[in-house]
Every structure is written in structure tokens, then in C-alpha cells.
Amino acid sequence: MPPLALLATCLVDQVLPEIGVATAALLERTGHTVDFPEAQTCCGQPFFNSGYHADAVRLAKRTIEIFEPYETVVLPSGSCAAMIRVEYPHLFHDDPAWLPRAEALAARTFEFSEFLIRFDLLPIPRTGSADNPPPFTFAQGRIRPSAHSPATYHDSCHMCRLLGLRDEPRSALEKTGVTIEEMAEPDRCCGFGGTFSLKMPEVSAAMTREKLRLASETGAAILVTADPGCLMQMRRFADEAGVRVEHLAVVLEERTR
Amino acid sequence: MSGGFKSGFRETARIAIEDVELIRSVETATGRFRLGRESALAELPEADAMRDHFKQIRAATLSNLKNHLQIFEANAQAAGVQVHFARNAEAARRIILDLARERGATLAAKSKSMTTEEIHLNPALEAGGVRPVETDLGEWIVQLAGEAPAHIIAPAINKTKEQVADLFREESGDEIPAEIPALTAQARRRLRETFLEAGIGISGGNLAVAETGSVVLVTNEGNGRMVTSLPPIHVAVLGIEKIAPTWAEAGVWLSLLARSATGQPLSIYTSILTGPKQYADIDGPEEVHVVFLDNGRSKLLGTKYEEILQCIRCGACLNVCPVYRSAGGHAYRGETGPPSPYSGPIGAVVTPLLFGLEDHKQLPQASSLCGACLDVCPVRIDLPRMLVELRRDSVEAGLDGAGTAAVTRLAARAFGGKRMLGLAARLARFGRRFVRGNLPRPSKRSFREIWREQRS
């Protein structure tokens, strides 16, 4: 089987590397060869969303060139997946040279939980079994597996609205033995919005506090999201809300270790 | 990227966020509207298909807008209506004030109209010797408070009943208990006098139907009927985009409007106004005027923003917007001047488009681009895309701030190659101890370092 490419995303690479480790480990555990093309940086979404169109186009072209050789690209981020799937074709809609390349990459790009469900890779085999040695793992665990359930799930905006992925992360959790306690308005924005959190910090923080309040009302042990951006934002206020926030891939990895 | 706005969105929002009562009022009302909308649309057999169809209707109408306005004008004139076209706010104010003065009116009864808020009609009437009284309960409260509307369909959404009781006490000198039946009874009592005495009735119009020259007015309180039938002259003010070619299109429009707005299949009153009182009518105005307001709308036709003119002002996007619900309606304003009558996602887009991006440069930034607005819009207006386009215009016009632009372009450069990224990342890790607040704190080791270690 040809290797699949991990697009770790800039936030995972620079800020939350454990998400990249967990994603790579799980992909390998499901029998795939994983490649991390080291030239990758950023898909361009922050620049696109804040109106720096030319910069976004440059980074999009770069990303297309880097990931073009792969048959499958997997991302542990709903919003970066949406950038490639929905916004790249839009970005190049009047560029006949780049549009087909953008569309081709979009068709081969999957958000992580979507990939697991789409190719029927659940349940994920545990590590240590004879045909599944652990090639890529954490040095040590962060959370006891028993503390993962019940979980409540935050639908990140672009993942659920632009990609329509609502059931996929939930079934990935459930098939790994995590029960889900739904919060009110699970698809209410966490307040991150990329540069929005920098330009409108007060409103952004108020939105995050409200999100965490709704999550904590469920009494769930953990708040799970499939987007590193949301995760980072919600963690900033998690202690004061008494909520523990984790990425989907990290939870799945820890439960199948 | 730093603060320092003296007025404008961020400063106003900062105060609103701390106002627990205000946020609770907004949450309660928008929550009711949201649930109402959901169940009202669920009642329709094919709500999604109807929304698609409605979008086609609105797009087709706008592509031939001038023609539909001319047909409306001809049919309205045939029904005895005088049709006026106002290029801008000042022209509209002058038309309406002249009508009031020529007829010797000193009191104007108004029904809720965001279009008249847009042109700041009330101060102009007052300055011209005509006292305007808002007769929609929410608008009356807002008028008594000397504020701007905080929601397109629920102008006093930010007020508690205790605050309303205080305002009513000041207005009348009577002691009114802070209970909804008592408050509405008081409003009814006070406003009835206005309906009977007013020399002119001024309303908005939810839509105009070209084939019969009719104006359709959708209200829940019945005040719209009084305003348009009791005073001897009625003036309706509408944006030029609010036109349905025939009743077939108007039917779809009305099926979606109240459902999207309040969750009602139809509002309590849907008034169809076609011309003045006729020979056999027992009541109705002797004169009817329709004022179509351009005020920056026609210049959007044929541009990437034309889609915004499809809006029917139902307010559904406000009710789902997490930014609106945290910041309140008054935050949607320019760096100078009063709040825009259009708040929430539609306000963040249409306000800079109509009143200027430079003075309203914060509004396109007042969104996390979550897309909840697009989910509920009855016309499926791609508001997030338009917010991004406005941000793009801002960058191109140099409105994003030299510092922000420099930092952003530097970051883009850093992401342009892995060597630059490595350098930037090392710098960032060196600086991580200094990072406070909102900026992401770089991890001690990047993923690519971990990858390299484990793979080599």
C-alpha cells in the first residue's frame, strides 16, 4: 500500500505536537505507512480568513505541490481539512492551471475521523498485539483511559458546517468505548476563529467561557474536539471552568494503547 | 491587532459582555427565536428546497431590479399611490418631511421600520416640527430610552421588564408594575392616543409586490394596521431591493419570513396595502406614498456583494450568532456615530457596504466565521464569504493597520519555506516564556523534531 501523507498542520507542529504523534501512531496501527513530508508548513487558512489573499494563494500552491504526490492526505484538523477541500477550489476558481490541481488534492484529503470511518478502520487494533507493534508512540500516557468517559464532543465550526462531519468523530469515540454526553448547542463556536481571538479578545473569551459552561453542565469527564485551534482556545480557559479538553486523536490513541 | 478603539465594536462589546442582565435578556430572546424557527421550518414539507427556490427568486429579481421597480411604480400609480425614489438618506428624509409639513401634520405615528432608522428619520422629523412616536412596543421602548434598536426584529431585546417599567414611569408619571400584561396595557393606552391624533402614518414595508403595486407589512401587534389606516396620509419606506415581481414570489417570501424570524407560520398581522381609501371603503388613508430608498444599494448590483441585497431582514442570523449573543446589538457600529440599525452577521456585512468600510472597518472582523448564519438564512446568503471578502478589501485599502499587515506578511513569509519556518520557530520557542494571553505558546519540541528523532 502506498504511504499516506500526514498533514500535521502548523498549530500541531509548533504548539500541540502530541496530536501529531497520536494521529501518526493511530494511522500506523491501522496498517498504514505514514509519511510526514517535511516541507509542509501552513495551509494558508489564517491568511485567507483575515483577507491576505495573495499570501493565502502562495501557501495554498505550496501545499498543493507538497502533497500532490500522495494518494491520500489525512489531517487531524477539521478546519484545515475544510480549507483544502472547500476553500482551495474556491481560491483557484478562475485559475485554469491550478484549479484541477486544487480539486484533485481536495478529493484525496480527509479529516482524521472521517478517514477512519470512510475506510472502515474501527475499532483500532491495540498496541502490543503480534501483528501490530507500536512503531510510533508517546513516552508516557497523559490521562488514565478510565477518565475518558463519558465525554462531551465539541463540533468545530468548519468541520461540521463546511464538511458536514458530525457523526464521524462521535462514532470513532463510541467505537472506542467512550460514551458521549451531548452538551447544549454542541456546534456553538468556541470563540477561537483564528485571528478573531487576537482582534476581538474580549468577545472571543466570552464565547469560550460560554462554550465551556455548556460543556461542564454535562458532567462529562472530558471535552473532546477534532480541531487543534478550538483545543488551544478552550484550554486557555479550561482550568477556571473545571473542564479537561483533549483532541480526538489523543483520546483514541490513549484508549487503544 | 492591539486594542485602543475609542468607540466602535470592540469597545462597545467589552462593556456589554460585563452586563449580565443584558446578555441574559439577549440569550433568552434569541433562544426562543431559535427554537421557534427550528420547529416552524420542520413543519414545512420541503423547507430546504423552498429556501433554494427562494434564493433563485431573489437572485432573478435583483438581476432585473429596475424593471420590477418600474412595473411596481406603474401598478401602484394605477391604484392611486405616489411612488418616490430617494437616492440617499437625505433625499428620503426630505421627501417624508415635506409630505408631513405640506399636510400640516405635527404628530407622526410610526410602525417599526429599520429603513427609517437607517435614514435617521426621527431626529429629522423632530427638527422639522413633526413629533414622531414609535408605536411598535419594542421601538417605543427604544425611543423612550433614546437608544438605537438592538435587534432587527426585536429592537428592545436588550431590555429587562424592570427597565421597561422605569421608562414607562418616566414617560407617563404613572407607577407601572414590572409585569408584561401591565406594561403592554400601558403601551396600548398611551399609543392609542397617538394613532387617533397623528397627521401622518409612517411605516416600513417588508416587501412590495410589483404586479399589483402593493406593500406588504408584517407585524405582531396590530400597530401597523393603525399606522397605515387611521392617519389621513400613509408613507411606506422600503429599500429598493424589497420587491417581489408577483404574488407567487411573495407567497414563498411570506412562507419563510415569519418562520425564520420568530418561528410563526405567519405573523399575527400580514397587511396588504394597495392604494388609498376607495369609494366604498369605510376607513383607510386618503393618500398613500411609497418611498424607495437606494442609499448605497444599487451600487452593489453586479458586484461580488450583490447577494447581500437578497436579505429579507428576518434576523435569523442574529439569533444563532455567538458573537451577537456575546456582544449585543449596539456593538455593531462605526468608529464614530450611533449603532447601525443592522446588527449581527447581516449588520457586520451590510453596514460597511452601505455606510463605508473605513468608518466600519471593525465590523468585518467581528466574526469567528463559524458559519451558523449561513445555516439558517432563508435565502442562504453566504455571509461568511462576504465577511472574508470585506476583510480582503480592508487589507487592500490599507485599513488593517500597518503593524498587523507587517506581522501577517512576515508570518506568511515564514511559512513560505521550511528553513524560514525553522528559524521563526526557534525564535518563537526562545520567546515562549514571554508569550502571555492570546498568542499560542510554542511547544518545547515541534512535531517535526519528534518525527525526525523517532524516524532516524
Task: Please sum up the structure shown.
The complex is a heterodimer of chains A (257) and B (456). Chain A has 14 helices and seven strands. Chain A has helices at 10-14, 17-29, 45-49, 53-67, 78-91, 99-107, 112-118, 157-162, 167-174, 196-199, 201-216, 228-236, 238-241, 248-255; strands at residues 4-6, 34-35, 73-75, 109-111, 151-154, 222-225, 245-247.
Strand order of the largest sheet of chain A: 2-1-3-4
Low-confidence stretches of chain B: 1-5
- The mean pLDDT of chain A is 93
What's the domain count of chain A? 2
Name the CATH superfamily assignment of the largest domain in chain B: NagB/RpiA/CoA transferase-like
CATH class of the largest domain in chain B: Alpha Beta
Radius of gyration of chain A over all CA atoms, rounded: 18 Å
Computed over alpha carbons, the radius of gyration of chain B is: 25 Å
Helix vs. strand class of chain B: alpha/beta
Could you say which structural class the secondary elements and strand pairing of chain A correspond to? alpha/beta
User: Unreliable stretches of chain A, pLDDT < 50, 5 or more residues?
Assistant: none
CATH topology of the largest domain in chain B: Rossmann fold
The shape of chain B, in one word, is globular
Q: End-to-end distance of chain B, in Å? A: 41 Å
Please give the number of β-strands of chain A.
Answer: 7
Count of DSSP strands of chain B: 10
Q: What coarse outline of chain A follows from CA principal-axis ratios?
A: globular
Amount of helix of chain B = 40-55%
How much of the residues of chain A is beta strand, in percent?
Answer: 5-15%
Structure description:
The complex is a heterodimer of chains A (257) and B (456). With 257 residues, chain A is an alpha/beta fold. Chain A folds into two domains: 4-118, no CATH class; 145-255, Rossmann fold (3-Layer(aba) Sandwich), CATH 3.40.50. Chain A contains 14 helices and seven strands. Chain B folds into three domains: 8-33 and 311-396, Fumarate Reductase Iron-sulfur Protein, Chain B, domain 2 (Orthogonal Bundle); 35-298, Rossmann fold; 411-455, no CATH class. Chain B is built from 20 helices and ten strands. In chain B, the strands form two sheets. In chain B, strands 1-10-7-4-2-3 form a six-stranded parallel sheet, with helices on both faces. In chain B, strands 8-5-6-9 form a four-stranded mixed sheet. The model of chain B is unreliable at 1-5 (pLDDT under 50). Chains A and B meet through helix 1, helix 2, helix 3, helix 4 and helix 8 of A and helix 1, helix 14, helix 16, helix 17 and helix 18 of B.
